[in-house]
Write a structure and sequence with these properties.
It is built from twelve helices and 13 strands. Helices cover 40% and strands 21% of the residues.
């Protein structure tokens, strides 16, 4: 009989590829449709649905609940069960969120893989500063409904202070109209010269809209994921999501074979990638520094 796991997602089925996750499962000996069945639960960018979806997976008695790219999904799963193993893959600090006791010894029924945000935000700001050396005031786009919104404010301010920069946190919620209005206000008030987009799942779903608005208002923006640069965003720097998802798939396979989440340390992402979209750079009349071109893992012509 096939093992049944649950995939709890904050976004939509079209938000991102699951190829890395499926590859990790396959390498662990599990293939969907052969010896594995996956119950998909999508919140469609409505986080209020996550607790009900998590409870549904618990009633379904899945062997493992997987929460990719969403700290709120992990939160909902953890609230729904202390028995079924939960494996996550997202940014932010799972210890600060209360999801695990520590990275090395998570305890309980939760483990996974994370990209700790403070170090990453610092590098993203440095990259944006290199791209825009004359910018004196940058913005950070965050979702106020995100579990890590307050920690983002703290982290970005600390990272900005370390490089002598000032950063204003600006917010937009789940509404596409709210995002459009924010860009219009930023352009009208000329409040920021560049924008750093946080790694909230909402902004992955809205990646095409963000790229269009950034181009319309000539606002250079740096994104956390390569998919956002591929959708027309200027530049991305962040975790290799396929690689991170692959590690999550490995952990799911190990748990299905009998290992316990409490004995599997939370892994930290070690591979990050820089992607440049030269078409967007040309549209913005930006000269990309030679250093960034050299460091880029991919240049989209």
């Amino acid at each position: 009989m096939a093992a049944v796991i649950g995939l709890l997602q904050q976004g939509t089925p079209y938000t991102f590829s699951l190829s890395g996750f499926r590859q990790g499962l396959k390498e662990g000996g599990y293939v969907e449709g052969q010896n594995l069945a996956i119950e998909y639960r999508w919140a469609n960018d409505d986080p209020s649905r996550l607790p009900g979806l998590a409870s549904d997976l618990v009633r379904r008695q899945v062997r493992v609940i997987v929460a990719l790219r969403s700290a709120l999904g992990t939160e909902a799963a953890k609230a729904a069960t202390d028995r079924i193993p939960i494996v996550f893959g997202h940014g932010g600090d799972p210890v600060a969120f209360g999801h695990v006791a520590s990275l090395n010894q998570p305890g309980g029924n939760v483990t996974g893989m994370t990209s700790l945000s403070v170090e990453l935000i610092g590098k993203q700001l440095q990259t944006l500063q290199e791209l825009l050396p004359h910018a004196h005031h940058l913005g950070m786009l965050s979702n106020p409904g995100a579990l890590f919104h307050q920690s983002i404010i703290k982290d970005v301010q600390a990272a900005a202070a370390a490089i002598g920069q000032t950063v204003e946190v600006v917010t937009a919620d789940n509404s596409s109209d709210e995002i459009a209005s924010l860009f219009a206000r930023l352009a009208e008030q000329k409040r920021v010269q560049g924008l750093l987009v946080s790694n909230d799942p909402l902004f992955m779903t809205r990646r095409v809209q963000l790229a269009i608005l950034a181009a319309r208002y000539a606002l250079p923006a740096l994104y956390p994921f390569r998919e956002q640069a591929e959708a027309g965003g200027l530049i991305s720097y962040g975790s290799d999501l396929a690689g991170r998802d692959r590690q999550v798939g490995h952990y799911v396979g190990r748990i299905l074979k009998g290992e316990k989440p409490a004995d599997l340390p939370v892994l930290q992402a070690t591979k990050f990638e820089l992607v440049l979209n030269m078409q967007t750079a040309k549209a913005l009349a930006l000269q990309i520094p030679a250093k960034l071109l050299t460091l880029a893992d991919e240049v989209i012509e």
